[in-house]
Amino acid sequence: MDVMAPMIERNGKCANAYGNQSLTLGYSRVNPLNARATKRGVMSKEGRICERCGKARLRASNPSVHCGSCSRAESLIGDVPELPVEFWFRPEVTAACMDWDLGKIFRYVLDETRISEERFGQLIGRSQAQVWRIANHKSECYDIRVFKTVADAFGCPPLLLGLAPTGTDLVAEVHRDKARTDEGDPTDRREFMIWGVSGLVSTSGSERKLSETDVASLRQIAHDLQFQDDQRGGAAVADIAHRHFRRAEHALSKGLHSSPAAQRSLEATSTELGHATGWFAFDSGRHTQARACYTEALSIADMVGDEPQAVRILASMSLQATWRGQPYEAVRLAEYAQRRALPWATPQVLSMLNARQARGWAVMGDEAEFRKAIIRSKRFFDRGAHEDDPKWLWYYDYSQLLGDEAFGYADLQRHQRAEDYLRLELGQRDEHYGRERALAYARLTEVMLAQGRIRDASRTGLESLLPCLHDVTSVRVLSKAATIRDGLKPHAGRFSEANDFVHAFDRLRQNQRPGSPR
């Protein structure tokens, strides 16, 4: 089991998962079960204990690593429908997961699934009485196996619980190496406190210094959050990213790093997290928060001399200004980014910056300057990728360039050209980028509506846009879809397709769960 956490012992010390050092925490979370298991020697052949519940002794004749009750629970898991991911990203549920409040998690899951406490206990290898006590905060549990079981049974994203996120090979490898080399009980090694999400930096009591491995884990979290954003939008991960950015910023300002190498890594990670947090806030419609995060991240990048990240942040600020209807600022920010990038920029970087500048000119209504900037962008792009391209430029491909050009023509009211480029973009766009595909379909529907093609707009909205909205939380996308709905509403009486879209969108909005963007 891959976790990013140290193990809590009775004396308030924690053995670092990445080394043998011990450090003192400002609090102590005792796991009596783990202490008892250690005393009775779970590694002995005659003392084997169930890996799922951590309590039941296994008979010598039992070849499984689970007791009978837990084996039955495993067979029952398939009978319970997996909770939708939107449930886990409700603000109150996300907060409970990040605070490692198992009682609240139990209560939220019980209320949502409406299964009995007895059935819930069967699914996670606990008795009904234990479930009731934990759900009502009559007793506490910090057993990582229980969290892992809940995640597996009900589809909780591991990242929220501090478990190794999907695709996190670095942390997994660290724990595999440690499991191969450490002596002692493997069950004990799994008994780690949630560490990655609930606190890289403790804000109560003494504060620990971050190692290079710690910072690498934090950077991996930023990458996994970006993956979620690409699929669904920033609203789903904005709060999580903001919390991590504040902790990284706090560690950097307080000098909480264990070595010069860790300091350099923390500086780079802080700017990356700051940009990601600003982007997620922008996609969530929180423009004031986005601007503040961008500004703070740019300040860190300037302080440590990270010019590529500074240029990246300026480019994102330019795009935000375009969306907010501030084209002059968008153009000037893109120009400033180009001046800073010239000494080192690759053709792909300059292509992206010119595309951002073109978007500003389009919103300003200057078609001549838009065309000049987009032509420059295409010429730079045609020079191809370079080995010195920044890693953060991975998203910038031909479909992205087509999308920038399409949005520019749409802003210039050149609707037919915008439609042509949007169709080209959608033909090139990877299926993974759910949010970008939804945004392109929303703009395509919008330009059809602007041309008075009510039936075409309604059909595109019904067949292409609405299916994307079920999985997307981006406020940018949802606000455009709401605008389209309002535009088709007056035509609902004359066109059945428009009426179908309006009703389908209204049903979708009504079915959105609390905490999802409206």
Number of strands: 3
How is the biggest beta sheet arranged? Answer: 3 strands, antiparallel
Task: Give the low-pLDDT segments.
Answer: 1-46, 164-206, 513-518
Q: What is the helix/strand order?
A: EEEHHHHHHHHHHHHHHHHHHHHHHHH
The end-to-end distance, rounded to whole angstroms, is: 37 Å
Q: State the assembly state of the protein chains.
A: single chain
How large a portion of the residues is in β-strands, by DSSP E?
under 5%
Shape: globular
Give the class from helix and strand content and strand pairing: mainly alpha
- In spatial order, strands of the major sheet run 1-2-3
- Mean pLDDT, rounded to whole units? 77
Tell me the number of helical segments per DSSP (H or I, 4 or more residues long): 24
Instruction: Round the Cα radius of gyration to an integer and report it.
Output: 26 Å
Please give the share of residues in helix: 55-70%
Q: Could you please describe the fold and organization of this structure?
A:
This protein is mostly helical and 518 residues long. It has 24 helices and 3 strands. The chain has helices at 32-39, 68-76, 85-88, 91-98, 102-113, 117-124, 128-135, 144-154, 169-181, 186-190, 212-232, 238-254, 260-283, 287-304, 307-323, 327-341, 347-364, 367-382, 398-411, 415-428, 434-450, 454-469, 475-488, 496-511, and strands at 7-8, 13-15, 22-24. The chain has a 3-stranded antiparallel β-sheet with strand order 1-2-3. β1 and β2 (13-15) form a beta hairpin. α15 runs parallel beside α17. Mean pLDDT is 77; it is low at 1-46, 164-206 and 513-518.
Question: What features would you highlight for this structure?
Answer:
518 residues, mainly alpha, 3-stranded antiparallel sheet, 2% strand, disordered N terminus, disordered C terminus
